[in-house]
Amino acid sequence: MIFAHDGLHDSVTRLSAPPLFYESLKREISLAERNKTDLTLLRIVLESDGSLSEATLISFADLLTNAFRLEDYKARLGELEFLILLQGKVDLASYVTERLIARWALEGPPGVRLAYSLLEYKAGQSALEWMNRLDGELLLRASF
């Protein structure tokens, strides 16, 4: 499986590609700073003992698309790594993440686990600083 994109969309999942996601992230940070609104980043990593098929990635991307609002940005940033930018506090992101995990437990293939982390935006930080903080967050393993 090859991770590739055209700059706008991932070739397999059709979610946002990294360059488009980073631009959207910067724009949403500017809006949040101006409007004093909250933003939360959700990082999800698919884990499996074996390799994952494209069908599994497509299925997970479809689940992401259906589980989150249209205004939430969803992207595939690595072969098995996904990011979602939510407009709202970490409590909202946590609630939606729990629902996503429950649906994946029912609909996802056996042996494919989810690990995730959530991080709320702190006023004044850049997109890069926020992403670096998220990378440093401990991944929680979903139990189902």
C-alpha Rg (nearest Å): 15 Å
Instruction: Compute the separation of the termini in Å.
Output: 27 Å
* Arithmetic mean pLDDT: 90
Number of helices: 4
Unreliable runs? none
* Beta strands, count: 5
Provide the β-strand percentage band: 15-25%
Oligomer: single chain
| Sheet with most strands | 5 strands, antiparallel
Which structural class matches the secondary elements? alpha+beta
Helix content: 40-55%
Strand order of the largest sheet: 2-3-1-4-5
Categorize the overall geometry.
Answer: globular
User: Can you write the helix and strand succession as a string?
Assistant: HEHEEHEHE
Give a structural overview.
This protein has 144 residues and is an alpha+beta fold. It contains 4 helices and 5 strands, in the order αβαββαβαβ. It has helices spanning 18-35, 54-67, 90-107, 127-136, and strands at residues 39-48, 73-76, 81-87, 112-120, 140-141. A 5-stranded antiparallel β-sheet has the order 2-3-1-4-5, with helices on both faces. Helix 2 (54-67) packs across helix 3 (90-107). The longest helix has 18 residues, at 18-35.
Task: List key phrases describing it.
144 residues, alpha+beta, 5 strands
Summarize the structure.
With 144 residues, the protein is an alpha+beta fold.
List the helices and strands and how they pair.
Blueprint (H helix, E strand, L loop, with lengths): L17 H18 L3 E10 L5 H14 L5 E4 L4 E7 L2 H18 L4 E9 L6 H10 L3 E2 L3
Antiparallel strand pairs: 1-3, 1-4, 2-3, 4-5
Helix pairs in contact: 2-3
